[in-house]
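F.,

This is the one I mentioned.
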């Protein structure tokens, strides 16, 4: 009887399975790797001290007061994660039509930056530049009588907000508002005020996505927004060329890094941007993506560690230099195992 494994002439000389046969050769040809350097950890900041609140639609994610956040930052730094992104939970009493709390030097975000840079100076601190946590209506900018978000008056406030973050010591300011011209305006102001080292990570291709739902619960802006939407400034999920145009403008205006948001449904956009510009490109694995993976894992329908690592590698394979993800600490822990 013939050996079933004896090669026959009708079989190909190129056997793709040779390299997949053993762990060593699979590792040799692995094109994409994941390390803690690829992660940015987004966190929600609360007023008070000793305060810790669970986010119902994001099991495992908590809002923390500054003192607890400082402890968290030490752990994040020890795990080798390079940066943390701050999202303040603004009390209703501090919200207004003019969003003045956004640039309050004593505001929650600004105080958190100072405390974190003081306690853990090596950890990169990134701030969110947008007005939605500070407006009574939950839109990312100032509105006119008709409710339309006004571009240029909003940019003026964003510039003040970004400057207040840089003055507090933020390493990276990240405009997530999608107003036109804000990167150029923020860059000019930072240069004029001597903040020449402050990096700008532009949310360049931010889509009007339904995957942001749990985040709006986490920062408490869902109720303010009511049934409203952000279609007049965030991008239509149907568009791809428009993302290229947005990124070109932001890089021209002085962005150091660009971002695509959300992540997994938009990896074609990431690949196009990376191929076309070759600039540092980040992906936001958003709250809805986290919630989906978490819920399926909690039901026993998916293997959480395996599926999260696969999601991360997919984003890197698409061209991302790094990923903002609520899973950052879990991933760093899994990678160290
Ligand atoms: N600027 C941050 C968001 O708008 C949402 C992120 C998320 O859904 O995780
Ligand atoms: Mg733009």
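My design for it:
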């Amino acid at each position: 009887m013939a050996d079933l494994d004896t090669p026959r002439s009708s079989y190909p000389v190129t056997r793709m399975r040779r390299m997949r046969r053993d762990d060593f050769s699979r590792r040799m040809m692995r094109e994409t790797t994941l390390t803690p350097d690829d992660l940015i950890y987004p966190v929600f900041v609360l007023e008070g001290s000793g305060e810790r609140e669970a986010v119902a639609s994001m099991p495992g994610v908590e809002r923390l007061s500054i003192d607890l956040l400082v402890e968290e930052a030490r752990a994040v730094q020890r795990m080798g994660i390079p940066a943390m992104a701050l999202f303040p939970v603004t009390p209703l009493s501090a919200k207004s039509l003019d969003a003045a709390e956004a640039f309050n030097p004593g505001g929650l975000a600004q105080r958190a930056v100072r405390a974190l840079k003081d306690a853990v100076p090596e950890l990169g601190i990134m701030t969110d530049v947008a007005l939605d946590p500070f407006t009574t209506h939950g839109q990312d900018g100032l509105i006119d009588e008709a409710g339309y978000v006004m571009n240029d008056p909003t940019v003026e406030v964003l510039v003040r907000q970004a400057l207040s973050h840089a003055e507090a010591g933020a390493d990276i300011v990240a405009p997530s508002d999608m107003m036109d011209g804000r990167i150029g305006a923020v860059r000019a102001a930072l240069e004029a005020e001597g903040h020449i080292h402050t990096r700008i990570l532009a949310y360049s291709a931010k889509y009007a996505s339904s995957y942001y739902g749990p985040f709006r619960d986490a920062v408490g802006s869902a109720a303010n927004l009511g049934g409203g939407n952000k279609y007049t400034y965030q991008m239509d999920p149907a568009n791809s060329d428009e993302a290229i145009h947005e990124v070109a403008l932001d890089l021209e205006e002085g962005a150091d890094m660009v971002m695509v948001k959300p992540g997994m449904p938009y990896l074609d956009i990431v690949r196009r941007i990376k191929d076309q510009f070759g600039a540092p490109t980040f992906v936001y694995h958003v709250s809805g993506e986290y919630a989906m993976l978490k819920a399926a894992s909690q039901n026993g329908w998916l293997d959480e560690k395996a599926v999260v690592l696969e999601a991360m590698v997919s984003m890197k394979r698409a061209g991302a230099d790094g990923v903002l993800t609520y899973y950052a600490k879990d991933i760093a822990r899994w990678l160290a195992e």
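The chain has one domain: 33-336.

Talk soon.
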